[in-house]
Write a structure and sequence with these properties.
- The strands form 3 sheets. The chain has a 7-stranded antiparallel β-sheet, with helices on both faces.
- It has 4 helices and 12 strands.
- The chain is globular and about 45 Å long.
- It has one domain.
- α1 packs across α4.
- The chain is α+β, with helices and mostly antiparallel strands.
- About 4% of the residues have low confidence.
């Protein structure tokens, strides 16, 4: 079953997530913004992604936006932060399949933008990701609890699926979220603690929604 975040709950969750990324509720200083911007520049340079990503940092959280799709990625842990440019394959040219990766509060978050929507619907992308999870973790079990989802603007609710898995001897909740906008398919892969699934689910959902193009209502 799915629970849709209310406007108030979503706004609160966005505030909490934004505060976590900024790491400080106080306004960022010029030095903090400069340091975050430099980190974003390094991430783009390391991935050789300047043709496809632009630095859009405005506070203490490094941010990079995929120029073609509008996916905006925030980064919060230098050990895990990276941008990936998937090599051209089939009808997809370089720059039409990209990803961003980070970790926040013990939750691993990967976001992808792919020009799949012109050929595959959101349900196909979700089911393909579910098959990949089952192949990687043969003992994965479909999550039986409620899953929280949300949207912004006039975009439809993203599709979401969850699995209970075990990683390094610890129980985890792993999620996949999919949303389409025009010809772009956006996918989120989120894995975190499952002792109380709500923080992992809510955090992953909010970060995914915040990264999508467009502004919330």
């Amino acid at each position: 079953m799915f629970k849709r975040l209310s406007a108030v709950t979503f706004a609160l969750a966005v505030f909490v997530a934004g505060s976590c990324f900024a790491q400080d509720a106080a306004p960022a200083s010029a030095a903090e913004i400069a340091a975050a911007s430099a980190r974003a520049d390094r991430l783009i340079a390391t991935a050789d992604a300047s043709r496809y990503f632009e630095n859009v940092t405005t506070d203490a959280s490094p941010r990079a936006r995929h120029k073609a799709s509008g996916l905006t990625c925030s980064f919060t842990d230098e050990r895990y932060d990276r941008i990936s440019i998937i090599p051209a394959q089939g009808e997809l040219v370089e720059g039409e399949d990209v990803g961003c990766h980070t970790r926040l509060l013990d939750v691993d978050i990967s976001l992808y933008a792919t020009r799949y929507a012109r050929r595959y619907n959101a349900r196909f992308i979700l089911e393909d990701a579910m098959r990949a999870i089952a192949n990687r973790w043969p003992d994965a079990r479909p999550h039986e609890g409620d899953l929280i989802t949300a949207t912004k603007g006039d975009m439809p609710l993203p599709l979401i699926a969850g699995f209970d898995i075990e990683m390094e001897g610890q129980p985890k909740l792993t999620l996949v979220l999919v949303s389409h906008s025009d010809e772009w398919s956006f996918k989120g892969r989120v894995t975190g603690p499952s002792d109380d699934e709500t923080p992992t689910n809510m955090l992953g959902t909010v970060i995914f929604i915040m990264a999508l193009p467009g502004d919330p209502d």
